[in-house]
UniProtKB/TrEMBL annotation:
Domain of life: Bacteria
UniProt-recorded name of the protein: DUF4261 domain-containing protein
Amino acid sequence: MTRPVPVPRTVAALYVVLTDEPIESDLPAPPVPPPSLLLARGSSPKAVRFAESLTYATAVSAEGDLSDALTLQRQTQAAARALAAEHVGVVVDAAVPRLLGPQGPHPDVLRAGEWFVLERPEETTTATHGLARFGLPELYVADTGDAALPMVDAVLTGIAQRVIEEWPDNDPVGPATVTLRDVARGYGDASAGGDDPTLTRSIDVTLAYDADADRLAVTLHDDPATALFAP
């Protein structure tokens, strides 16, 4: 029998503000991710070069109940952005980690893709990185063909959208059906709320909790190329 996902009592949010002048803070200076890691997680070379020129690092952090995880992240990120704006600095999302751009998360709508990145720990393996901020294990899918990787990215984004929305009220372990609408919502696509019939296309998946690796292994029961993205 597949084990359920452990439910933590609290979650934490941590953002790092980089500036060229010191900022008074009661917290110790946080570690700053190396430039190579920021680049690997999608930050632009120009933004990373600017971040390297900033001498001081200040933590903006908070801890709260699991049920308020999304609000906690939004509020803490907003506080970090305000501090960076005041001191002409930049913000590092420590959960990924990556440099944040000028646009903040949508204030009213959950767009899962704003909160994690996708990475390739192996050539045909895709995993999320960032869902831990919601008290969730990361998603992981293995043994996909190279040509399918962009479509697997889309499926994982749709799964992440559903899992974040339903957690912690519903345990994510077990079979699920993910629609193209879930994918669109995960990317913040403006068409996600429309009545386009293609948004009802779906793919069946199963999520199993791997306790040793603390991750959710995803099995795709259909080919996303035909189930979701066929002409």
